[in-house]
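Title: Prediction job returns without error message
Component: structure pipeline
Severity: low
Priority: P3
Assignee: unassigned

Description:
Job completed but the reporter wants confirmation the result is attached to the right record. Sequence as submitted:
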Amino acid sequence: MSNNHPPHDPAYKQFFSNREMVESLLRDFVAEDFIADLDFSTLERCSGDYVSDDLRERRDDVVWRVRWKDSWAYILLVLEFQSREDPWMAVRILAYTALLWQDLIKTGSVNEKDGLPPVFPLVLYNGSRPWNAVRDVADLLVPQAGRLLAYQPRQRYFLIDECRVPEDALQGSKGIATQLVRLERAHTPEDVRRVVKELMDQLQSPAYLHLRRAFAVWLGRVVLKRSGITRNIPEFHELEEVGAMLEERAAQWKDEYIRQGVLLGRAEGKAEGKAEGKVEGINLALSELLKARFGSLPVDVTARLSAASDTEALKRLIHSASTAASLQDFLRILEGIVNKNT
């Protein structure tokens, strides 16, 4: 991992120093049978500072342990914020695992009779490019190893590529880790506002004080800037402060979407000298407004909007999109207009 420590880095370490966040991550995103056998009431944070023989330290990973059947299992959580995958991640994971075992041996936490505890390495990646690196260290060995293969290590790590988690997987859970991934994928202030509102309801307990503050700081420093809010962002200390600011600006954003969309349509129409340019611009504004209010649009809805060609009908739909209580309400209005014009 880079030593520059991007803004995500300290915030994520705060997130995954929280037991409920780690439990949510495992339950929401790890579809493995052993998850059902973990006793999450025993989940506890371990030291992540391993010192190898040459005194180099590892401080970039987060380690937890949890009871699994009759023994402890260790969760090795590696937070990866590089813009592209690390092709040697499997080697890094093998080294981290060995350092963890060495630390347990050195401190007397394990003995020869019980053996080494199982380790589950999990890489959490949020880069914009897909992660294509091999996940088993054995796959990095030269093909000509032949009989030497019996003497080479094997270890696989589990990958969560946040930007490519299927949308239906996110829709099926309200876990805290799922909300974190939703915020990573939020592209408009309205998307952010919707998730923040849910988080405020979920994290009301005093036990979540540090987690609420971690979300507040990260939202101000990273998420809001990425979603297009770059001016007058204070240093937030509470999630409620973020929610209040987003609510205050919500009406302004809707007006801007409408105004910018219509202007875009007129500009394109003037540039092309055709009515189609205006239709395309208004259609784009309508789609963006719907996404800002209701999230990602189903494919059939996008297709129906793209097929619309009546500029006056589209203008009425923009108004309806800004006032409809839900996407279903808007679709009923759209159906009525389509039927009227056919």
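Comment from assignee: result matches the submitted record. The beta strands are 38-46, 50-51, 57-58, 61-68, 71-80, 119-125, 158-161.
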